[in-house]
Amino acid sequence: MIKTTGINHVALVCRDMRETVQFYTEVLGMPLFKTVELPDGGQHFFFDSGNGNAVAFFWWKDGPPAAPGIASVRKFPMDAKTAVGSMNHLAFDMAEEELEAALDRLEEADVPHTHAVVNHDDSRMGVSRELHDGVFVRSVYFTDPNGIMLEFAATTKSFGPADIAHEPATAADREDV
Asked: What is the spatial distance between Cα 145 and Cα 74, in angstroms, rounded to a whole number?
């Protein structure tokens, strides 16, 4: 049996490494702890996102351009569908009591973001304006300079067997098949 102990790092691609370093270190407060010059002229930099977890970025001089709606969110924050095999967003774990301060910091830094904490629940819409016992995570969504959708997420309850209540969809259920 394979046993993992968590996520070591997530590797993303940026268009400007200097701008990315500035955002992740100065705005999000994630220390840069490792830089690598790649043999093909690219770079690979690692940021400490807390608790032994990391976010890494690749940069290539000849990398393909951004592909909104395919490999990233089309229009933040309302059109969040992305293509099969793409990364939709990256969520950083955060204590619930830190969410308001995070909103303030994003506002100060002029970072595009949801202007309120989003309460995720099991209602038909999946979100609630009010905090109630059915809210399982509270989130703040924002984008980095590369257009990557990020999230600060605070889990508000423990999960159990009743939280697995849906049959998984199949490729045949897709409209484009």
From this structure: 14
Could you check whether the bond before residue 77 is cis, i.e. omega within 30 degrees of 0?
yes
Structure tokens at 26: 């100065």
Element spanning 120, H or E: strand 118-120
| pTM reported for the whole predicted model | 0.85
Q: Are 55 and 49 in contact (CB under 8 A)?
A: yes
Binned at pLDDT 50, 70 and 90, residue 77 comes out as low
The string of DSSP codes covering 19-54 is HHHHIIIIIS---EEEEEE-TTS-EEEEEEEETTEE
The β-bridge partners of 45 are 35, 57
- 83, 103, 104, 114, 120 from 77: Cα distances, Å: 16, 15, 18, 7, 15
pLDDT band at 48 (very low <50, low <70, confident <90, very high): very high
Number of Cβ atoms within 10 Å of the Cβ of 129: 9
C-alpha–C-alpha distance, residues 131 and 119, integer Å: 6
The pLDDT-based confidence of 37 (bands split at 50, 70, 90) is very high
